[in-house]
Design brief:
- The chain has 173 residues and is mainly α.
- It has one domain: Methane Monooxygenase Hydroxylase, Chain G, domain 1, CATH 1.20.58.
- 77% of the residues lie in helices and 0% in strands.
- The protein is built from seven helices and no strands.
- It is rod-shaped and about 105 Å long.
Length: 173
């Protein structure tokens, strides 16, 4: 009889421990899956928003600009980026991208506050005044691409067997 009670107790304790472990491992797995899904959705939304902002900055391209930058153009980009911030993408800016975004906005605002430019909205803005804006736009685009990982090597190619295969393919005979 004592052996039976002992077997029942050991079985009960083992069952209880197994149930507790199963509960916590299932809970952990569920949280991990939800976190991964949230991160994936956030990254997709950020990519969509950043692509819109990226396109707005083409007026400040260093090379191959489609036309001269005037006060009117600057005003349009400033308005477009403000609307983007409040209606599309501002919520997706990371700590790293907020500073460069607002630096660009400040430089644009400084130029927009220039009375000489405001009084002649169709005159091309001089390069020396435009250069800091171009640099700030370039810096912002760099940070945006860092945020979404477009300039990083894929983890698939950067590690493991694929990296080894690639290294072996490029190794001298």
């Amino acid at each position: 009889m004592a052996d039976t009670i002992q077997s029942v107790l050991v079985g009960g304790v083992a069952g209880f421990v197994s149930a507790v472990i199963t509960y916590f491992s299932t809970r952990f797995k569920t949280r991990l899956e939800l976190t991964a899904e949230y991160d994936k959705e956030l990254q997709n939304n950020r990519l969509t928003a950043y692509k819109k902002l990226w396109g707005m900055l083409d007026k400040f391209a260093r090379y191959g600009r489609e036309g001269p930058v005037t006060y009117k153009v600057l005003c349009q980009v400033s308005n477009d980026t403000r609307n983007w911030y409040f209606h599309d993408g501002g919520i997706y800016l990371t700590r790293a991208s907020r500073g460069p975004y607002f630096r660009l906005k400040q430089l644009m605002q400084d130029a927009l506050d220039n009375r000489l430019l405001a009084d002649h909205p169709d005159i091309v803005i001089e390069e020396k005044l435009l250069e800091p804006i171009i640099q700030a736009g370039s810096r912002l685009r760099t940070i945006l691409s860092d945020d979404i990982g477009t300039k990083r090597a894929s983890w698939l190619w950067g590690t493991g067997i694929l990296a080894e295969l690639t290294a072996n393919m490029n190794a001298p005979d």
